[in-house]
Hints:
alpha+beta, 6 helices, 23% strand, two-stranded antiparallel ribbon, 34% helix, 7-stranded antiparallel sheet, 9 strands, C8orf32 fold
Amino acid sequence: MLAQSAWKKTFLLLFCISYLSELNAETTPSITRTYTWQYRDKLYSIDYNFNSSSYNYYKKLKRTYGDFSTYLSESRNYPVANEFSQKFVKLADKNNFTDWQLVEFISAFVQSIPYVNDGRYEYPRYPIETLVDKFGDCEDTAILLEAILRELGFNSVLISPKNHMGVGIASKEEIAGSVFPYNNNKYYYIETTSAGWSIGDYPDHLGADVLIYDPDNMIMQCCLQKIHLITTMVTLQKTVH
């Protein structure tokens, strides 16, 4: 009888500890993260406090796999990308970056996030999940970069070769690099999984046929083209959402 009573007390104690841990995760007001990355041989840093309610909201959403542009949609009650993207604008203004340099700057930030494969089961992340977890695979970092660029008004899309994903940024001018013609625009590829990739660089092992995920339209198929003309001035396309 005494042994049974002791067991019940132990079980109740463990249950309370588990419950309080979950409750604490739900009610913690903020999640603080610090990011440090390099752009043009200079180190930059951002400190940011995320609302834990926002993180928990997106973490609990059902995962879909047919259209990855779904992960660019944010709830009005839990906005993340807009406010976070302003951190880059402030740093760009402080350093007198052009629009092109701003895109490079943000790309370098995303490329600094450690690549971690989901393993056997694919788990696409919303932008806040990748930012808080501080890791992700190709679609996670591509979705994050696309979300930030779109919030800042750049004309960009998700580009998905077979078993991979990156981002395309529209330019009115031709530059050296890999481009995907789509919807009367030229989208230059951005690789997001590791540092050192410039806008227009396209990994050799990737195929030329891709899917374009455009939140403003639909999923489209298109093919890679190589542009060899180099221009000194590049004008990026911005859109009003």
